[in-house]
Every structure is written in structure tokens, then in C-alpha cells.
# Entry
Amino acid sequence: MIDGDGLVGRVATVAAGAAEVTLLTDATFAVDARDAATGVWGVAEPSAGGNANELVLGFPSGSDVSVGDSIVTAGTGPSVFPPDIPIGR
# Structure
């Protein structure tokens, strides 16, 4: 599920006139991510500290990822999301 800013979550269940969405910040959510500037791949998932306003981006050690880089969905493998949906900075 996306809004005007990017990825929000995924639809978990659907009923007549309603849908339940698992938000990107939910402890059960993770998505393959890519640094749009460098192409480095990793995983975006909720912070282990439980802060609902933070995501952790796991990239390989030594990756060329900089503060302010745009992070987007990777869109490969078993991902249900197409590439290049904004996740954050």
C-alpha cells in the first residue's frame, strides 16, 4: 500500500468495504530496499527498540550509503512490491 509519500505497508486482510493494513513500522514487516543513488541493496525493517517512527536499514558493511540518500523498494526476488517505491531517506 502506498500514499503520496511512498510505501505505507501491505494489505493484510480484506472485508466488505474495509481492509486491514500492516504498517511499515509493524514488528512483523520487512522489505527489500535499495539506495537509489548507489544501488546498494539491503533490508528496511522496524527498529528493534520499538520506536514506531524509526526504520533500520541493513546494508552490507562498507557500503557507500550516505545520510540523505533516497531509499526505495528493491522490487526483486520474492518481494510483493515493484521497484522504486519511496521508503524514506
Summary: The beta strands are 2-3, 6-7, 9-15, 18-23, 31-35, 41-46, 55-58, 71-73, 86-88. The chain has a mean pLDDT of 87.
